């Protein structure tokens, strides 16, 4: 089992920045891929980006490329989502999730943290 706990959400003005954290526990994550997702009211869940725990390789959705950065701290077993140049359309509940490398399903999910960007 992998437990994930997000933190760092809040209210920010458009153009501002926010950093989300996802603390992981329960298992060594070397063979896992971590993902950040978001879901706005009335919209489908969107994969914001992913990072491989072992190499730190990242991928991003086009909607956030150049504005969001995913990183991880091995010592703290924590993944971060640094969000900059925030827009009102970034408003959503943000979730982190984990899947085993080589699989497609994100099996483990955090509880989510609300991010609200005001115009």
Give a written overview of the molecule:
The protein is mainly β and 119 residues long. It has strands at residues 3-7, 10-13, 18-25, 32-39, 46-52, 58-60, 68-73, 78-83, 92-100, 108-109, 113-118. Strands 2, 4, 5, 6, 9, 10 and 11 form a seven-stranded mixed β-sheet that branches. Strand 5 (46-52) and strand 6 form a beta hairpin. The radius of gyration is 13 Å and the shape is globular. It starts with a strand and ends with a strand. The mean pLDDT is 96.
Percent helix, as a range, is under 10%
The residue ranges in which pLDDT falls below 50 over 5 or more consecutive positions are none
Quantity of strands, as a count: 11
Q: In percent, how much strand structure appears in the residues?
A: over 45%
Structural category:
mainly beta
The main sheet comes to: 7 strands, mixed
Q: Which outline best applies?
A: globular
SSE pattern? EEEEEEEEEEE
Number of helices: 0
* Integer-rounded radius of gyration: 13 Å
Terminus-to-terminus distance: 40 Å
Please give the structural blueprint.
Layout: E1 3-7, E2 10-13, E3 18-25, E4 32-39, E5 46-52, E6 58-60, E7 68-73, E8 78-83, E9 92-100, E10 108-109, E11 113-118
Parallel strand pairs: 2-11
Antiparallel strand pairs: 1-3, 3-8, 4-5, 4-9, 5-6, 7-8, 9-10, 9-11
């Amino acid at each position: 089992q992998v437990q994930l706990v997000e933190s760092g959400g809040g209210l920010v003005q458009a153009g501002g920045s926010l950093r989300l954290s996802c603390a992981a526990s329960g298992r060594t994550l070397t063979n896992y891929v971590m993902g950040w997702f978001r879901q706005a009211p009335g919209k489908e869940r969107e994969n914001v980006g992913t990072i491989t725990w072992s190499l730190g390789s990242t991928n991003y959705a086009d909607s956030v490329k150049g504005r969001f950065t995913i990183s991880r701290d091995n010592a703290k077993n924590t993944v971060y989502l640094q969000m900059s140049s925030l827009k009102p359309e970034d408003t959503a509940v943000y979730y982190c999730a984990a899947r085993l490398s080589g699989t497609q399903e994100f099996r483990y999910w955090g509880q989510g943290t609300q991010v609200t960007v005001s115009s």
